[in-house]
């Protein structure tokens, strides 16, 4: 197969846009990049992207494929089975892939549903992005990530094995998730906007619990990422050796120093902040009172947070928290990152080479090069001039298979 690319950003790390290139694809891999439009229909299919801007498949470092916020979300918690959630996830996985995201990290879903979906995509049974799956979040009893706001007997039924209290019990929770199949460990280091409890957005795990989680995960070869809004939880997790922060709403100068000292990554999820603030302040608000108060508090602060982190030299990986906002709208995060001070190229780097480095998959994703999987997307215009071009995806290939060709 040959892909003739008019403009090609093969390696976003250097920002070089090449013109008039042909990608030679054999099986699921790129095997060669040739000068000129030299596709040979006698040797394989020729895909004409001569007028397009071609770049690597995009990476979203924070999604929740098995659901999506809606007025019935609380009811769905107690009516949808794991199998139902996997089927819902299949719908959203396809939608995400069609938006140009060929790799995602799913950071919080029922184990059976998300691991089944991950495996089905890997086996070619379901169209979707490559999924790096955390499964159930490691969380404290009663905190963000646990079940809140239902009858006590219902909450006992729905609470996960990954809920813990005390350092030893939290070590057990991490090991339980690894045994269940987690690729990465996701924890909730602070309160969260959408947990139905008036527990604020500050630190929820104790320092000894955080240390136990990070140490036990690292010993089992897993990185640890933390949902964290409050600065106390952000800094405590980074001091414990955590690998990345999701959200980071109230980070401060000390946080920035800790990020840089640890080589940790920030995943700002600006789209989630924008979405919850719009819902909570709008006429059709479907959040509970506890959720509404936290959405109005945290959402508007996230753009400034990302601006300060970027100016401070923190490494930023692209992630949306889609499932809070709508799946398929993931590329709207790019414009928000630019509003926060990133250049369009820096925003694209965050969703390609940066996210690949963050997720430790640089040999599998993030650039177009011989030996890499053929994950290739294209848009009509130049996203380095107008980053919103990435919201209008025209072509999607994953692993050498074409899923979209408008």
Automatic annotation (TrEMBL):
InterPro entries: Amidohydro-rel, Metal-dep_hydrolase_composite, Metal_Hydrolase, Metallo-dep_Hydrolase, OTAase-like. Gene3D superfamilies: Metal-dependent hydrolases, Urease, subunit C, domain 1. It comes from the Bacteria. GO terms for molecular function: hydrolase activity, acting on carbon-nitrogen (but not peptide) bonds. Residues 53-400 form the Amidohydrolase-related domain. This is Imidazolonepropionase. It comes from Brevundimonas mediterranea.
């Amino acid at each position: 197969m040959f892909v003739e690319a008019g403009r090609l950003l093969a390696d976003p790390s250097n920002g070089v846009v090449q013109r008039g290139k042909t990608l030679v694809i054999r099986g699921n891999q790129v095997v060669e990049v040739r000068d000129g439009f030299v596709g040979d229909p006698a040797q394989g299919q020729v895909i004409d992207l001569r007028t397009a801007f071609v770049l690597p498949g995009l990476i979203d470092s924070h999604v929740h494929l098995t659901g999506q916020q809606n007025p019935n979300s609380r009811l769905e918690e107690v009516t949808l089975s794991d199998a139902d959630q996997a089927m819902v996830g299949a719908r959203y996985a396809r939608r995400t892939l069609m938006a140009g995201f060929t790799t995602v990290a799913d950071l919080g879903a029922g184990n059976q549903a998300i691991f089944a979906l991950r495996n089905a995509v890997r086996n070619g049974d379901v169209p979707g992005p490559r999924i790096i799956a955390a499964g159930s979040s490691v969380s404290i009893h009663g905190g963000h990530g646990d079940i809140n706001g239902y009858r006590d007997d219902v909450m006992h039924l729905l609470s996960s094995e990954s809920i813990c209290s005390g350092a030893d019990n939290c070590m057990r929770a991490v090991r339980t998730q690894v045994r269940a199949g987690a690729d990465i460990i996701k924890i909730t280091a602070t309160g969260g906007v959408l947990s139905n409890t008036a527990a604020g957005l500050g630190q929820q795990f104790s320092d000894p619990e955080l240390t136990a989680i990070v140490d036990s995960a690292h010993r089992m070869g897993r990185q640890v990422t933390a949902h964290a809004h409050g600065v106390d939880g952000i800094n405590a997790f980074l001091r414990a050796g955590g690998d990345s922060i999701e959200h980071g709403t109230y980070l401060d100068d000390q946080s920035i120093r800790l990020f840089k000292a640890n080589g940790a990554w920030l995943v700002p999820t600006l789209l989630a902040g924008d979405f919850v603030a719009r819902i909570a302040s709008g006429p059709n608000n479907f959040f509970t009172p506890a959720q509404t108060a936290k959405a109005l508090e945290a959402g508007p602060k996230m753009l400034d947070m990302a601006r300060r982190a970027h100016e401070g030299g923190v490494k930023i990986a692209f992630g949306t928290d889609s499932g809070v906002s709508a799946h398929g709208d993931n590329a709207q995060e790019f414009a928000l990152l630019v509003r926060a001070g990133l250049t369009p190229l820096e925003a694209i780097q965050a969703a390609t080479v940066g996210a690949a480095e963050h997720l430790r998959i640089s040999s599998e994703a993030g650039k177009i090069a011989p030996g890499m999987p053929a994950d290739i997307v294209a848009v009509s215009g130049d996203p380095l001039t107008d980053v919103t071009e990435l919201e209008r995806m025209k072509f999607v290939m994953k692993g050498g298979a074409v899923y979209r060709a408008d």
